[in-house]
Amino acid sequence: MIAIDQLRKTHGKTEVLHSISFEVRPGRVTGFLGPNGAGKSSTLRILLGLDRATSGRALIDGQAYRDLRYPMRAVGAMFDGPGASNGRTARDHLRWMCQSNGIPTERIGHVLDLVGLERNATHKVGTFSLGMGQRLGIASALLGSPKTLVLDEPTNGLDPDGLRWLRAFLRGQAAAEQTVLVSSHLMTEMEDIADDLIVINKGALVATGTVDTVRGSHATLEEAFFALTDPQDMPAGGTL
User: Fold this and answer.
1) What's the pLDDT tens digit per position in 46-63?
2) What is the pLDDT of residues 109-146, one digit of tens each?
3) How far apart are CA 109 and CA 113, in angstroms?
4) Which of 16, 57, 140, 166 minimizes the number of CB atoms within 10 Å of its CB?
């Protein structure tokens, strides 16, 4: 599981994260929501060892990411897109990732098939559409057969068929008792995909719970989101 405990981050005199705490449990898809600048990226960067917290802890199965010997075997992450060189083929990109983490190269064909890129294995990443790049990023996250997935905006660039595939894939991961954390701006997709939600705004935790709990009395999750993060953006008549 993922445990965020009193996580605080400052940049100079600016406090980016205000001692936030939450847990992401296995067997559930957890949506991580917040407007731009809310602190989602800062939280994920600390969780994935790309930045250090001012105080507090971010743990994966009780360990900090930096302390994991083979991190890709514990947590599969897609952050800021696939992270592949445009001049490499999809297969070469995945082969390099296998070598860096001691992962059998036999996994490459399996994950390419799983995300629907088996026919594009020898194509250069620079020729990929945005949606194909997202699928490659997910394939990279799956290479080490991790029990935890952290995906940042995986829906970007996906067509309706891709969104349907992603929805089924994430539900399947949760059914297999994986821990799944998904950051997204698409409220309608999170309403369909997620079991639990974590909502932050201006560096503070504003809501946690099941989708129904966070939605509350609002007709849609989008309405609830605006009420939680910026009440003045609510349509006329909207209330908290």
Assistant:
1) 999 999 999 999 999 999
2) 999 999 999 999 999 999 999 889 999 999 999 999 99
3) 6
4) 57
Torsion angle, CA of 28/25/30/48, rounded to 10 degrees?
-130
pLDDT of 104 reads 94
Q: Where are the domains of the chain?
A: 2-61+147-233, 85-146
Residue 231's pLDDT is: 53
Torsion angle (degrees, nearest 10) of CA 228, 229, 232, 237: -30
Which are the contacts of 100, defined by CB distance < 8 A and separation ≥ 6? 72
Q: Are 174 and 29 in contact (CB under 8 A)?
A: yes
| DSSP 8-state symbol, 218 | S
Helical H segments across the chain, by residue range: 40-47, 71-74, 90-101, 106-114, 130-142, 160-175, 187-193, 211-215, 221-229
Note the pLDDT of residue 232: 54
- Give the N- to C-terminal CA distance of the chain in Å, as an integer: 31
For residue 164, give every residue at least 6 positions away whose Cβ sits within 8 Å of its Cβ, in sequence order, or none.
none
pTM of the model: 0.90
Q: Which residues are registered as beta bridge partners of 218?
A: none
What average pLDDT does the segment 86-107 reach? 92
Q: Which of 126, 133, 60, 139 is nearest to 97 (CA)?
A: 139
Distance of CA 21 to the CA centre of its chain: 17
Q: Inform me whether the pLDDT recorded for 204 exceeds 80.
A: yes
2-61+147-233: CATH topology is Rossmann fold (3.40.50)
**Which pair of tokens denotes residue 180?**
């799944």
Residue with tokens 């994966």: 60
